[in-house]
Amino acid sequence: MAVLVSTTINGDAVEFACEPDETLLDVLRNRLGLTGSKEGCATGDCGACSVEVDGRLICSCLMLGVEAEDREIETVEGMADGATLHPLQTKFIEHAALQCGVCTPGFLVAAKALLAKNPDPSEEEIRFGLAGNLCRCTGYDKIVRAVQDAAKEMRGA
């Protein structure tokens, strides 16, 4: 039997009905049309489905949709301000830090969470902060450089 859930996603109040065993990832993609988060592994090992819940980075494939009740959820779709990309999105493009795009939303959300806690991370801190995200195409150097450049821009340096 479906459960009615009330939550906030990307700053907007949202209600949806979902099955008790349906993941948040499936709810976001299949019920709400927020297809940025991807299913890469369905075991929480790749980070492609990363979202923030109440300011905490999580794998949405490991959280049930019913657990979203009264929570604040941020997805990759909430990063841009209308047509204006977030600095991380811009720097990922400038640094060619993406190829197939499956992992990119998870990396962007994870990098945003990292920079919210540490606006001036070292390369080692960036690599550690993104360690839960896997890329099968690009390698990580361009991703790290994009995050470093975005952090610098966001600090106004």
Walk me through the structure.
- The radius of gyration is 15 Å and the shape is globular.
- Strand 1 and strand 2 form a beta hairpin.
- Helix 2 packs across helix 5.
- It folds into two domains: 76 residues, Beta-grasp domain (Ubiquitin-like (UB roll)); 69 residues, DNA polymerase, domain 1 (Orthogonal Bundle).
- The longest helix is centred in the last third of the chain and has 15 residues.
- A five-stranded mixed beta sheet has the order 2-1-5-3-4, with helices on both faces.
- The chain is an alpha+beta fold and 157 residues long.
- The chain has five helices and five strands, in the order ββαβββαααα.
Note the main sheet: 5 strands, mixed
What's the total number of strands? 5
**What number of domains?**
2
Assigned CATH superfamily of the largest domain: Beta-grasp domain
CATH architecture of the largest domain: Roll
Terminal-residue CA separation: 53 Å
Quick description:
This protein is of the alpha+beta class and 157 residues long. 33% of the residues lie in helices and 16% in strands.
Secondary structure layout:
Blueprint: E1 3-9, E2 12-18, H1 24-31, E3 50-53, E4 56-59, E5 72-74, H2 87-94, H3 104-117, H4 123-129, H5 141-155
Parallel strand pairs: 1-5
Antiparallel strand pairs: 1-2, 3-4, 3-5
Helix pairs in contact: 2-5
Keywords:
single chain; 157 residues; DNA polymerase, domain 1; alpha+beta; 2 domains; Ubiquitin-like (UB roll); 5-stranded mixed sheet
